[in-house]
Amino acid sequence: MTSLLAVPAAPGFADPVGDAQRAFRGLLDAIAHPGRIVSLDARVAAPAPLVPAAAAALLTLVDFETPLWLDAAAAAGDAPAWLRFHCGAPIVADPSPARFALVSDAAAMPRLDAFAPGEDAFPDRSATIIVQVGDLHAGDGWRLAGPGIETTCRLAVDGLPDWFADALRANRALYPCGVDLFLAAGDRIAALPRTTLVEG
Amino acid sequence: MDGYNFAYLDEQTKRMIRRALLKAVAIPGYQVPFASREMPLPYGWGTGGIQVTASIIGADDVLKVIDQGADDTTNAVSIRRFFARTAGVRTTERTAEATIVQTRHRIPEAPLRDDQIIVYQVPMPEPLRWLEARETETRKMHALAEYGVMHVKLYEDVARHGRIATAYDYPVMVSGRYLMRPSPIPKFDNPKMDRSPMLQLFGAGREKRIYAVPPYTTVRSLDFEDHPFDIQRWDQRCALCDAGDSFLDEVIVDDRGGRIFVCSDSD
Amino acid sequence: MYVAVKGGEAAIANSEMLLAETRRGDPALPEIGTAQIASQLSLAVDRVMTEGSLYDRELAALAIKQAQGDLLEAVFLLRAFRTTLPRFGASEPIDTARMVVRRRISATFKDVPGGQILGPSYDYTHRLLDFSLLATGGAPADAPRAPVDPGPMPHVLALLDREGLIEPERDSDAGAPVPDVTRDPTTFPTDRATRLQALARGDEGFLLALGYSVQRGYGRNHPFAGEIRLGEVEIEFTPEELGFPVTIGAATVTECEMVNQFKGSAKEPPQFTRGYGLAFGHSERKTMSMALVDRALRARELGEDVEAPAQDEEFVLYHADNVEASGFVQHLKLPHYVDFQSELVMIRGMRAAAAAGAPTAEPPLRVAVGED
User: Fold this and answer.
1) Is the domain of C101 the same as that of C155?
2) C305-339, pLDDT tens digit by residue?
């Protein structure tokens, strides 16, 4: 059992200031261009099951002010101790108060409406969900449109449950409320903010 | 600079601002409340823009800072010097070379690209504030997309003056949902915001709000079908570079009313 | 001539050098030291610490020296330093009943347990310029001091509380996290803890004017100065790893408890209500103004009509901070010639249209806003 005060074996960012800045610019680029696959070039060796892009996103964005929800697979291993040590985030068992959520096993993930969609007056008080997926390819798959996309773009994602596209459309219908998603594969990431229209 | 973090802000503050920025981009035109910090520069002098820039800037960035379109106005010099001191980044006066442009009151004449970010300094982020002073009320109006008071104000302008009597900080609708203040840029610059490839970030430090317009997002200047939005035009050309399509500053050259017109964008 | 309207790095550097010269004043005179400021301009230091939200006499004195005695500029300097300091946590609530009291007065009872202690005060000085202070080198005579009673000095309002005549102190949120208006954006409606924090940092002049407006009838709430006390309190902090409080220092504070009338409501019988003020150092005018405004801002909670400026929490909290206000008022010095040029073009156009006798245009036919 890992004590909270013990230093976990795995380090966080090698250069906490520079690496966080670079990872953030990748995340910003991704959410400003939904469907664009961005390499975070993350130099981070996080414990399983965290993939580098998801780990870098959490190190960059999460801290003691942001309740974090982990799915069962991520909550089981060394990841919680590593995240507590490097981010100081309170880890919550219930998804609804979480500001950030990490899904490492997409097939078993909860429906999107389990997470906070924000309020009409404060739609920013919504969850950001990082979903680890099998792979991301541009050029085929869903057709995406909306802010950040010049006309349309295509994004194919491996490893998501089959209800996912419908759930994205239901999420879009809540606008301006709704959750925002990052899909992570290896050290690459793509964003699906609530504004994105998904066809196919 | 010794004793301070890269780009002045501590990492916890940057994380908080970065989270606000991602939500701002996800909800175009919506004002995200953020825990604006007390900066070593005065409120009203660009503290919101500075906090946004400090949260996004990295060692590889090239920064351009303009005020009134010019790189050499005192406050632009002061802010550029702040980042040169605290972040050691390269600065430029050329729009095309910059990765980040921080601006007060202008959008550069040269169109920005997909890989460039513009950061606006915002004094008053709330487009409805002069029609309704209360934040609790304007927040409800945004929640309900209830923008009738603005329509009435513009209608009264047309009825009284024959035109919409707003020349700068001209209200816009972003992506068909949120009414937004573009910051006090002249309405001449409004069309540059519409479906632009650049990422547009807005920081209001004193009012503690961040908002954004993602690339390729519709930004419509409010108007009426029979009183369409139009921009300022000058009969004159720039006295220095002869440009005929730019925003011109009027410079009084003597005490007998003599004046010349020059480009506001010094690039 | 075009360059003349613009500044540059050299101009800013020159301006800062001129400022340093002006700050030093006549070099023939000895330079003022921060220890002198901290000791002899102590009320200025108290104000800067209070509104700067940082208890550090030396740094407040430095800020006053650096700002040439401009207290708002000094508050700004202290705040900009404070914002860079790491937070370790919140202290235990200070216990002002255990204050080592130097001054304590109540306007509600002729005598109270523990007594009235006038202490140092300008209250009964005749405001005659003391020309003897023009000369330096003299020392004041030793003031007689009554022996300090080391026992706790109960609050006057606690006596009213015992009879049930005043609303009880509500400490139901004693375990709640301490809000921090410097770390969280304020959203409305606010709770009292957030308001008191904002008022403690608020500009003394602004709160003074608002408190005065309450007395003159703009949201009148019939105040009495229940008690004002000045003295030293211990600051305790509970480190995570220890789990019990340890004393980390002491601070001088002024506390004001106002007693206000309340005519009662459907749920509550008529009773007195409270307004509270607390500030670093010796800051009576500030704490009294704060207590008046605190009580006025409780109008909604107490079921009173919100009609006057002092009762309007958005109005008060958005405008109480002098660093925000000073920055925004003074930003008008920045160039605005692009905006102004836009207005010039518009006004000239409108005047030309008026001179040409153009009829006012037809009102618009159809609103096209909000469509894409």
Assistant:
1) yes
2) 999 999 999 999 999 999 999 999 999 998 888 88
Say if residue C262 is in the same domain as residue C365: no
Per residue in B43-70, pLDDT (tens digit) is 999 999 999 999 999 999 999 999 998 9
Same domain for C112 and C43: no
**In Å, how far is B123's CA from the nearest CA of chain C?**
8
pLDDT score, position A132? 98
Chain B interface test: which of C334, C350, C366 (most B C-beta within 10 Å): C334
Range of weakest confidence among C68-82, C120-134, C190-204: C120-134
Domain co-membership, C272 together with C369: no
pLDDT value, residue B1: 62
Is residue C372 over pLDDT 50? Answer: no
Q: Which chain B residues are within 8 Å of A150, Cβ to Cβ?
A: 197, 215-216
Q: Of C56, C82, C108, which residue sits at a domain end?
A: C82
Contact C361 B158 (CB under 8 A): yes
Q: What's residue C242's pLDDT?
A: 83
Residue C174: inside a domain: no
Chains sharing 3 or more CB pairs under 8 A with chain C: B
ipTM strictly over 0.85? yes
Q: How many CA atoms lie within 13 A of A86 on its CB side?
A: 28
Determine contact: A147 vs chain B, CB below 8 A.
yes
Size of interface A-B (CB pairs under 8 A): 106
Of the candidates B16, B30, B197, the beta carbon closest to that of A123 is on B30
Establish if C129 belongs to a structural domain: no
Question: Are C226 and C108 in the same domain?
Answer: yes
Q: Show the 3-state SS of chain B.
A: CCCCECCECCHHHHHHHHHHHHHHHHCCCCCEECCCCCCCCCCCCCHHHHHHHHHHCCCCCEEEEEECCECCCHHHHHHHHHHHHHHCCEECCCHHHCCEEEEECCCCCCCCCCCCEEEEECCCCCCCCCCCCCHHHHHHHHHCCCCHHHHHHHHHHHHHHCCCCCCECCCEEECCCEEECCCCCEHHHHHHHCCCCCEEEEEECCCCEEEEECCCCCEEECCECCECCCCCCCCCCCCCCCCCCCCEEEEECCCCCCEEEEECCCC
Percent of chain C at pLDDT exceeding 70: 92
Q: What is the pLDDT of residue C371?
A: 37
Chain C contact present for B165, CB below 8 A: yes
Q: Are residues C105 and C232 in the same domain?
A: yes
Q: Do C182 and B81 touch (CB under 8 A)?
A: no
Q: Nearest residue of B to residue C369 by CA position?
A: B222
Domain count within chain C = 3
Q: Scanning every residue of chain B, which has its alpha carbon at the shortest distance from the alpha carbon of C329?
A: B44
Q: Is C261 a member of any domain?
A: yes
For helices A16-32 and B47-56, angle between their N-to-C axes, nearest 10 degrees? 100
Whether the CB of A126 is below 8 Å from some CB of chain B: the reply is yes
Shared domain for C276 and C211, answered yes or no, is yes
Phi, psi (degrees; rounded to nearest 5) at B124: -130, 105
Hey, are the CB atoms on A148 and B22 less than 8 Å from each other?
Answer: no
Domain chopping of chain A, boundaries: 13-199
Q: What is the mean pLDDT of chain A?
A: 94
Domain range enclosing C40: 12-82
On chain A, the residues whose CB falls within 8 A of the CB of B18 are 24, 27-28, 60-61
Out of C6, C329, C349, name the one closest to residue B72 (CB): C6
Instruction: Identify the segments of chain B with pLDDT beneath 70.
Output: 1-2
Res C339: pLDDT: 85
Tell me which chain B residue has its CA closest to the CA of residue A192: B26
- List, for residues A97-123, the tens digit of each pLDDT value: 999 999 999 999 999 999 999 999 999
- Are C112 and C189 contained in the same domain? yes
CATH number of A13-199: 3.40.50.11310
Shortest Cα distance from B56 to chain A (angstroms)?
Answer: 7
Q: Check B25 against A148: CB less than 8 A apart.
A: yes
Which of A65, A195, A196 is best to mutate for the B interface (most B CBs within 10 A)?
A195
Residue C196 falls within a domain, yes or no? yes
